[in-house]
Design a protein that fits this description.
By secondary structure, the chain is of the alpha/beta class. The chain contains 6 helices and 14 strands.
Length: 227
């Protein structure tokens, strides 16, 4: 979990992440189970939760890294199969639009993040202002693939659009590989998400557009915008 001492000079991005993470707590139902995503902004969320002991009853985690950070903060972590009701999931994004469409997966946790977003009644995405874009695709699109199908999927994608590069040395918590697709300008995120998801060997596409965020919170050093 990222911790920035008060004496450490924060960048604008860090200040925005901290502000939006703290603002997200106002959306949390006290005593509930919270879905918690993965990434640098979520690290500030976990820090904020640690400063409010008892605010949530437990959490469902999207990655091994998040599980470790939650437990270190004294927060009980449950398996999703143990949870009947997940009122809210809070997660970050690598890119986000005002239509609530997202690219996620820079940290490699896209499959479990997408599962939590699907399970939750509400999905709130928290980002600093640098992640807000007009069109998705400047950030390479992560796709989790079955290892034996990595080259097959890459060839299929490249025959259609974009360059699919293997994120070498990275194995997801699910034991899979990640392809990062470069050179995209994503005009219709839901359509592309569906199309890429149909390629044999693809586990998860890092577009969150078929099930977008319900609310987007955008943090800056001076405030938080609710979209």
């Amino acid at each position: 979990m990222t911790h920035i001492p008060a004496s450490f000079p924060q960048t604008d991005a860090q200040a925005g992440k901290r502000r939006v993470a703290e603002a997200a707590l106002s959306h949390v139902e006290p005593g509930s189970v919270l879905g918690v995503g993965t990434g640098s902004t979520v690290a500030f969320l976990i820090e904020a939760l640690a400063a409010r002991p008892g605010l949530i009853r437990a959490a469902v985690s999207s990655s091994n890294a998040t599980t470790g950070a939650l437990r270190a903060a004294g927060i009980t972590v449950l398996d999703l199969n143990e949870v009947e009701d997940l009122p809210l999931c809070i997660d970050g994004a690598d890119e986000a639009t005002r239509a609530h469409h997202l690219i996620k997966g820079g940290g490699g946790a896209l499959t479990r993040e997408k599962i939590l977003a699907a399970a939750a009644k509400r999905f709130i995405c928290i980002v600093d202002q640098s992640k807000l874009v007009d069109t998705l695709g400047t950030f390479p699109l992560p796709i989790e693939v079955i290892p034996m199908a990595r080259k097959l999927v890459a060839r299929t994608i490249e025959a259609q659009q974009g360059r699919a590069l293997w994120r070498e040395g990275v194995v997801t918590d699910n034991g899979n590989h990640i392809l990062d697709v470069h050179g995209l300008s994503i005009q219709d995120p839901p359509s592309l998400e569906r199309r890429l998801g149909q390629i044999t060997g693809v586990v998860t596409v890092g577009l969150f557009a078929v099930r977008p965020a319900d609310v987007l919170l955008v943090g800056s050093p001076t405030g938080t915008e609710i979209i």
